[in-house]
Amino acid sequence: MASFLSLLFFAVVFSVSLFLLRRSRYRRLRLPPGSLGLPFIGETLQLISAYKTENPEPFIDKRMNRYGPIFTTHVFGEPTVFSADPETNRFILLNEGKLFDCSYPGSISNLLGKHSLLLMKGSLHKRMHSLTMSFANSTIIKDHLLVDIDRLIRLNLDSWTDRVLLMEEAKKITFELTMKQLMSADPGEWTESLRKEYVMVIEGFFTLPLTFFSATYRRAIRARTKVAEALTLVVRERRNDDRPRSDMLGALMASGDNFSDEVIVDFMIALLVAGYETTSTIMTLAVKFLTETPLALAQLKEEHDQIRANKGHSEAAVEWCDYKSMAFTQCVVNETLRVANIISGIFRRTMTDINIKGYTIPKGWKVFASFRAVHMNPEHFKDARTFNPWRWQNNSEAANPGILYSPFGGGPRLCPGYELARVVLSVFLHRLITRFSWEPAEEDKLVFFPTTRTQKRYPIIVNRRERGPTRS
Ligand code: HEM
Question: Where along this sequence does the record place binding of heme (predicted)?
């Protein structure tokens, strides 16, 4: 008993001394202003409780007003520098791999797979990232992907009658599209059963990542194994099949890099994960914002009815030139991405002491570059918290959009799906608007805080438009 007590005593003394030592080092450095909150817990509880309310913005607003756009906090067990400063965010993004490293908890790696692009670093990351960019660039979308995007969206919308759970439908569309693009898999029983497993994997990202405590996490790990097994079979079959394929799997195998089955499977899972919640949420929110902004909806309707009328046939395929003619749609896409901010920012870890804007961020600290805080700042965007697609019409709002506007990140980890996501959303809006009118169902209205995950499904009541638009 006595030895246990002395051990406990030394452990406490050691932890407290470490804590004080760190504090005194931090005091010597010129850290960004802010508060580290309570020992160990920091300000995590304040952050969590802010995101449980209807308006989470004050957590950031309050600190920005008090300390400025770069401040120190302590969340999820670590001191973290929060940046709402556009130039600092840019600096963080561009110095990925040199001064900052991406940093995800181990629990994420269990679900994504250790070869996932999101976790890769160094030269392999560079190679995989540029391959991924080449799979989803505008030429590939124009020549190969657009026809499937349009076809699969139409196919899904064909079955819509009366009450539709928009978020669910958007997720189904997104998954089917990704499966088609990745491995030429058409929707069917196999893709649907894979989707069910996959949904369980996704649940794992939003739960306590402890196998012992969380049944959801355990289920997610089991589902991940099943998804990986199913995809491994596809890869093996493909290795014995000489027919040329114009999908991402085909391109990956033909790249001459000799990737192992495991690398390819992790790559595919990463693409499924990265594009799923993001694209489907943005599809749902665009409809929500448009529903709440009738003038924008009317202008969009006019644009799409005109495109349809010019084509003469309501089922004619959407072509690249149609997409390029959707000028106001692009304003809606920009604005939805600005206001919705599915990925509100990115975490990185400092690889060395970083001096920035007169402050020092110590080596090993986490930094959070918040895109959302910039997008929501009235100093950068007039009436920043209002959905206003017209602000993009002559782009006068953001004099330097590369710095002020970054929904897809930037630098070496710029989202490889940025063009794809825009095209999917534009074609989806085109088909939705030219086929249906809609109103939100009374119950279960979408309450959405873009930085937290919503379980809401945004039901809408759809009505088929009587006659398709005619030539004007
Ligand atoms: C509205 C939709 C989307 C948004 C807002 C979005 C946003 C982002 C952001 C901000 C990053 C940077 C993460 C970081 O720097 O750590 C990123 C990375 C990534 N995105 Fe997207 N994304 C979207 C859709 C897609 C789609 C459709 C794909 C599929 C091709 C995709 C694939 C990826 C991948 C693989 C990465 C990791 C890149 C890397 O770490 O090198 N995303 N995305």
Answer: 415
Q: Is residue 107 part of a domain?
A: yes
- Ligand 1 centre to CA of 421 (Å) is 9
Assess if residue 192 is contained within a domain: no
The helix (run of H) or strand (run of E) holding residue 24 is helix 2-28
Q: Which residue, by CA, sits nearest to atom 37 of ligand 1?
A: 118
Handedness of CA 393, 396, 397, 401 (dihedral sign): positive
Domain with 54, as residue range(s), is: 25-113+345-375
* Three-state DSSP class for residue 400: coil
**Listed residue (60, 114, 52) closest to 85, CA to CA:** 60
**Residues having CB within 6 Å of any atom of ligand 1:** 102, 117-118, 129, 132, 136, 270-271, 274-275, 278-279, 282, 342-343, 346, 407-409, 413, 415-417, 420-421
**Rounded to an integer, what distance in angstroms lies between the CA atom of residue 125 and that of residue 250?**
19
Summarize the annotated binding site for heme as residue ranges. Answer: 415
pLDDT band at 471 (very low <50, low <70, confident <90, very high): very low
Residue type, 55: N
- Which 3 state secondary structure label does DSSP give 19? helix
For the chain, percent of residues with pLDDT exceeding 70:
83
Distance 416 CA to ligand 1 centre (A): 6
- Most informative mutation of 131, 415, 418 for ligand 1 (most atoms within 8 A of CB): 415
Query: What pLDDT is attached to residue 93?
Result: 96
d(CA 111, CA 228): 10
- Measured over the CA atoms of residue 98, residue 100, residue 104 and residue 106, the dihedral's sign is positive
224 assigned to some structural domain: no
Q: Is the pLDDT of residue 84 over 90?
A: yes
pTM equals 0.89
Residue 463's CB is within 10 A of a number of other CB atoms, namely 12
Percent of the chain scored above 90 by pLDDT?
A: 54
Q: What is the mean pLDDT of residues 171-182?
A: 94
List, in sequence order, the alpha helices (H) in 405-458: 418-435
Q: How many distinct structural domains can be found in the chain?
A: 1
Concatenate the DSSP letters of all residues of 122-181 into one string.
HHHHHHHHHHHHHHSSHHHIIIIIHHHHHHHHHHHHHT--SEEEHHHHHHHHHHHHHHHH
CA-closest residue to ligand 1 atom 18: 415
Q: Distance between CA 60 and CA 66 in Å, rounded?
A: 10
Cα separation, 286 vs 170, in Å, equals: 11
Which atom of ligand 1 lies at the shortest distance from residue 411's CA? 15
Question: Cβ of 392: how many Cβ atoms within 10 Å?
Answer: 21
Q: Contact at 8 Å (CB) between 455 and 206? A: no
Question: CATH number for the domain including 63?
Answer: 3.30.43.20
